[in-house]
Amino acid sequence: MNHDIGFIKDWIEPQSRVLDLGCGDGSLLVSLRDQLKVLGYGLEIDPQSISRCLAQGINVIEQDLNKGLKNFADHSFDTVLMTQTLQALRYPHLVLDEMLRIGSKCIVTFPNFGNWRTRAYLSFRGRMPVTKQLAYQWYDTPNIHFFTHTDFEALCKARKINILHRQFLANGFPDKLLKSLCPNLFTEIAVYHLSR
Amino acid sequence: MSLQTSNDQRDQKGSVGYVTPQEAVIEQPLSLACGIVLPTHSLVYETYGTLNQDRNNAVLICHALSGNQHAAGVYEDDSKPGWWDHYIGPGKPIDSDRFFVVSVNNIGSCFGSTGPNSENPETGKPWGADFPPLRARDWVESQKLLMEYLNINCWAAVIGGSLGGMQAMRWSLEYPDRLKNAVVIASSMKLSAQNIAFNEIARRAIKSDPDFCDGNYLLENKVPHRGLALARMIGHVTYLSDESMGQKFGRDLRMGDLLQGKTDPIEFQIESYLNYQGDKFSGFFDANSYMLITKMLDYFDLAREYNHDPVAAFKHAQCDFLVISFSSDWRFSPSKSQEITDALIAAGKQVSYVAIDSDHGHDAFLLPNQRYREAFGSYLSRVADQIEGIAQ
User: Fold this and answer.
1) What is the CATH number of the domain that holds B276?
2) Mean model confidence pLDDT for chain B
3) How many angstroms separate the CA of residue B374 from the nearest CA in chain A?
4) Final residue of a domain: which of B290, B322, B354?
5) I need a labelling partner for B55 at 20 to 30 A (CA). Which of B107, B197, B281, B299 fits?
6) Which ipTM score applies to this complex?
7) What is the interface size between A and B, counted as CB pairs within 8 Å?
8) Taking a C-beta distance cutoff of 8 angstroms, is the pair B344, B351 a contact?
9) Quick check: is B198 in a domain?
């Protein structure tokens, strides 16, 4: 379940300004602060996560992503991050626009619905997949959009978003070995570095 | 409801116990923003906890309009705890086992520090209405002199709600290297027109009382109780929310009933409550202080000297910030706290912002609330960890 996205530190400049949308307990910002000395801020709405951020000295701002990011000025951050949250937002494409307005670059990660396990689950069981990456029943899930990494790239093309880097992650077997052969079939989590 | 009760009970533990106010006579002249210089002034203050050897665990509590030095614990002859006792004490967010807490009654107020009831050295009579007009920065200057009096070089945190939060922000700009953290609760960078309007109604109420005597009531041996009570009643309504008043009083009657065919007097519970609060307040607060401090609130504008640019203003700050708001606070609404936070982020400062759900309006910053306590405590516990060398 825990995919290591430590490699994204290569995409972030030391001492730059980083905004993490949906920062959870702040662990990613802690590692970016400790390794790159970034000036980081996290947006979060879960009270317990907010308290954990405060206890770790992470700058956390209580703000609901679905209510917009208009309070952040254009290009006020070097990197805007969002991990595993895109699929849970009401209008992911508009949030992406906002991320690229606020940040020079942005990094997003999301579960790849094109993975063979989800495809097989739906094909053979005829039920909406409940997998490690998408561990909720359809009627009670924060994940309201299901898309593959190919869908995502089509969106980027349509909205003129440049893909600077991408990484495909998989921990399962045989996904781990085969993901470079056929990313859409074997990627569990997709990671994109974007600009406009 | 049972959860609330257990929280309240937990608050009863961890009291700082019996406290005694102290008085500092500040011999250095205090230059006020209005140009007048007070050659000396007195400050009444309390402290809780112990100053460590490095003298770097001191926190300053800044009170609001009607607050005073008695923020925590109890006096031997009065069982009523200090105004922020829910949040100051052993194991509480402002942990007196870890911090040396300094709580001061500011000048212009009426609990023993130099104010309108003190003697004007030039006339030998009480200052009364002639006490110099004050700004929040004057309170900060006076607190800075107290800091030197106590031989403290840098506050671990300056903390305050409402007008107290304004002082904390002003500290961060005036003496950026003299505080490590500013905790700004239910506050604002400036009052809205509506806020000023409510303050003016309150002042008009006081001035309308014939016993006010243009502010010289002490010389006339009078006290404008009615005017001050009315001023407080207006203020009190604005510190509560429609929800909390509805929950607490609704349309309940204290006296009479609303059946037709009756001429008996009718009194709603809220009428009785407000009258009681007004009368109680007018018994211990001073009318001139109320006039003076409401004006001070009105005049506060954090970024005025910075070309009205809050980002430019906060660029001068060096401390870390925690900003807290309450959902039902319409006097200092969450949007005002969000503005502070946005300006701090744009200025590249370390800041966290917590928006607490509460039905208690502006008064929420004084009342028990589990989430408020957790967030406030998590932040300050890390501050204490850093002082004690537990965290970086």
Assistant:
1) 1.10.1740.110
2) 95
3) 7
4) B290
5) B107
6) 0.92
7) 55
8) yes
9) no
> How many structural domains comprise chain B?
2
Residues B268 and B375 both lie in one domain: no
> pLDDT averaged over chain A?
94
Identify whether residues B142 and B105 lie together within a single domain: yes
Instruction: Name the domain boundary from B267, B290, B313.
Output: B290
pLDDT at A6: 87
Contacts of A57 in chain B (CB under 8 A): 382, 391
For chain A, percent of residues with pLDDT exceeding 70: 99
Same domain, B34 and B112: yes
Q: What are the two backbone dihedrals, phi and then psi, of residue B161, each rounded to the nearest 5 degrees?
A: -105, 150
Claim to verify: residue B184 and residue B224 sit in the same structural domain: no
Mutation target for B interface from A45, A48, A54: give the one with most B CBs within 10 A.
A54
- Regarding pTM above 0.90, the answer is yes
Structure-block tokens of residue B45: 């203050």
Q: Is B355 in Cβ contact with A57 (below 8 Å)?
A: no
Instruction: Indicate if B98 and B246 belong to the same structural domain.
Output: no
- State which amino acid sits at residue B224: P
What CATH number did the domain enclosing B44 receive? 3.40.50.1820
Specify the pLDDT at position B11. 47
- Distance CA(B105)–CA(B294), nearest Å, equals 16
Yes or no, beta carbons of B382 and A41 under 8 Å apart: no
Is B117 found in the same domain as B62? yes
- A39, A55, A71 ranked by CB distance to B342: nearest: A71
Q: Which residues on chain A are in Cβ contact (under 8 Å) with B346?
A: 73, 76
pLDDT in tens, B273-289: 999 999 999 999 999 99
Q: Is A43 exposed, middle or buried (0-12, 13-18, 19+ CB in 10 A)?
A: buried
Whether pLDDT at B59 is above 90: yes
Same domain? For B309 and B286 the reply is no
Known catalytic membership, residue B103 = no
The pLDDT tens digits for B295-333 are: 999 999 999 999 999 999 999 999 999 999 999 999 999
What is the average per-residue pLDDT within A173-196?
Answer: 92
Q: What contacts B381, CB < 8 A, 6 or more positions away?
A: A55, B95, B98
Asked if the structure places residue B195 within a domain, the reply is no
Active site (annotated) includes residue B225: no
B329 catalytic, yes or no?
yes
Q: Do A178 and A107 meet the contact criterion of CB atoms below 8 Å apart? A: no
Residues A32-74: pLDDT tens digits?
999 999 999 999 999 999 999 999 999 999 999 889 999 999 9
- Give the chain B residue nearest A76 (alpha carbons): B346
Which is the catalytic residue, given B286, B359, B362, B363?
B362
Q: Does B199 map to a domain? A: no
Task: Answer yes or no: is B200 within a domain.
Answer: no
Residue B266 domain boundaries: 205-290
